[in-house]
Design goal:
Layout (H helix, E strand, L loop, with lengths): L2 H32 L6 H17 L5 H24 L7 H23 L4 E2 L4 H4 L2 E3 L2 E3 L1 H23 L1 H11 L1 H6 L4 H26 L2 E2 L5 H14 L4 H21 L7 H15 L14
Antiparallel strand pairs: 1-4, 2-3
Length: 297
């Protein structure tokens, strides 16, 4: 393999891994606070991409405005899901919340099919993101630099919120002991809603960038990225934001580089993620940076 080809695969892997990382953070934030896997997270990714599609094609908004409105709309959706589907089950057994999460996922997908139809639709790609850069024998799209760059910025903002602000302090306190935090006067329900809001905003941002990388939207586009991001979160240590980032980037490199060096296995690309999940659960269930936690059934 030539150096140019290796660098091409390297940047592709970094872009894909950055998207997985951004989606995985949403899983890990919710799990860190509620010990709940929000399986509707991948569908919020899909909704965010659709918001941009309709913003640009139906309303004629500039792409940047459509992207901002999509993030805001998806954040509101995340809060609504938490209020309707999860908050009433806060004191119920974990399995009840898990079933509710799966039901919400199916509901959003089915509603999207009814409202948007199942036909894949093209996505507007801003010209400045798809004007190819030629560097020697290397061809790179600005999108390849835009996605990791935006991921770094968003993760940096998130870490600042969590470690430097009072809501972030409350999130960390709730993740350790929700009842004691409530007794200290923290409005726990508001902080949990804020967690869903932030996680949904990150899912929408990743959905927008996913639709730019694979320029079409359809109602089931969030399923596979959502599952793989969940695997990335488990691999990195679910409950750890830094672990989610590491797991997402690692999974992106595993997928792209395995196919690059063994192209005959390209048909099994999706299987690598699930094999990784099995290996992690067998040999290190807490993931790379995860901690052992007590579970209440």
């Amino acid at each position: 393999m030539s150096l140019e080809m290796f660098l091409q695969h390297f940047f592709n892997a970094l872009t894909l891994g950055s998207l997985y990382a951004l989606i995985a953070i949403g899983y890990t934030m919710v799990y860190g606070i509620l010990r709940l896997i929000n399986f509707a997270h991948g569908d919020i990714l899909m909704v965010g991409a659709y918001f941009v599609f309709f913003g640009t094609f139906a309303f004629g908004w500039p792409w940047g405005i459509a992207a901002v409105m999509a993030i805001v709309g998806s954040s509101v959706l995340g809060v609504v899901i938490e209020r309707v589907a999860y908050r009433p089950l806060r004191d119920a057994p974990r399995i009840s919340a898990l079933i509710s999460a799966i039901a919400v996922s199916f509901f959003i997908e089915s509603l999207a099919v009814v409202v948007f139809t199942g036909q894949p639709r093209p996505v507007l790609q801003p010209e400045w993101l798809v004007a190819e850069w030629q560097i020697g024998g290397l061809r790179i799209l600005p999108l390849t630099a835009f996605v990791p760059g935006m991921t770094i910025i968003l993760v940096g903002i998130l870490l600042w919120v969590i470690y430097k602000t009072k809501p972030g302090l409350a999130m960390r306190a709730i993740s350790k002991d929700i009842e004691t935090t409530r007794l200290l006067g923290v409005k726990v329900d508001n902080i949990i809603a804020l967690t869903f809001c932030i996680g949904s905003a990150l899912a929408a941002a990743s959905g927008i960038m996913w639709a730019l990388r694979y320029p079409q939207v359809h109602p089931y586009m969030g399923i596979m990225p959502g599952l793989k991001a969940f695997i990335a979160a488990v691999f990195g240590g679910i409950g750890s934001i830094q672990g989610a980032v590491i797991g997402g980037v690692a999974l992106g490199f595993v997928e792209i580089m395995t196919v690059a060096f063994m192209p005959e296995l390209s048909g099994y690309r999706d299987a690598f993620a699930f094999i990784l999940l099995v290996l992690v659960l067998l040999f290190k269930p807490t993931g790379l940076l995860g901690e052992k936690m007590e579970e209440k059934i």
